[in-house]
C-alpha cells in the first residue's frame, strides 16, 4: 500500500478519480479525515457528474461510518438515494456490507439488495497484532491494568493501543469495541 500512496502523491490532484482513490486509501488506512479531505478537494470536479458525485458521497458516508457517526452516514446516503445506480450499490456492498445494511435499514427509499454473505473490504478493521491481543484481553473482561500486566506493557502503551483500536472500530469504549469486533467477526 505504501507504493500506491507514493505514486498517488506524485500525481496531479486535478483528476477526481485519483483523489477519490486517495480517499479510499485513507479509509483503508483507518484515517477517515484523509478520505473526507479528498472528497472535499474534488467537490467542484464531480459536480454535475452523477456517477462521480455518487461515488464521492459514498466515500464521505464510509468516512462517517468509520468515525462511528452512523447518523452522518445515513444523512449522506439519504442525500444520494435518488441518484445511486447499480454500479454504486455494488461498490457499496463490496466495500462495506455494514454500510449497505445501514442504508437498507435506515435510508428511506434505498433499494433493497441481497446482503453479501461475506463482509466487505472495509468491514475488516486494519488492526495491528498488538491491537488484536488487547482486543482479545478486553473480550475476556480484563481491565487496562491487567492487560498491561499480561502483555508486559505500560498502562500508557495499552491506552495508546486502545485509542487506535477504538478509532479503527469507530467506537469509544471497551464494551462497544468488543461488540463491534464480534459483529465483524474479528474475534
How would you describe this protein?
By secondary structure, this protein is an all-alpha fold. The protein has two domains: about 1-120, Serine Threonine Protein Phosphatase 5, Tetratricopeptide repeat; about 125-185, Arc Repressor Mutant, subunit A. It has twelve helices and no strands. It has helices at about 1-10, 15-30, 30-40, 45, 50-65, 70-80, 85-95, 95-105, 130-140, 145-150, 155-170, 175-185.
List keywords for this structure.
single chain; about 190 residues; mainly alpha; Serine Threonine Protein Phosphatase 5, Tetratricopeptide repeat; Arc Repressor Mutant, subunit A; 2 domains; about 65% helix
Short description:
The chain is mostly helical and 187 residues long.
Percent range for β-strand residues? under 5%
Largest sheet: none
Q: Helical residue percent?
A: 55-70%
> Low-confidence stretches at least 5 residues in length (pLDDT < 50)?
none
User: Radius of gyration, Cα only, in angstroms?
Assistant: 18 Å
N-C termini distance: 25 Å
CATH architecture of the largest domain: Alpha Horseshoe
Reading the helices and strands in chain order gives: HHHHHHHHHHHH
As for the number of domains, it is: 2
Mean pLDDT over the residues = 84
Counting helices, strands and paired strands, the structural category is mainly alpha
Number of helices: 12
Number of strand segments:
0
The CATH class of the largest domain is Mainly Alpha
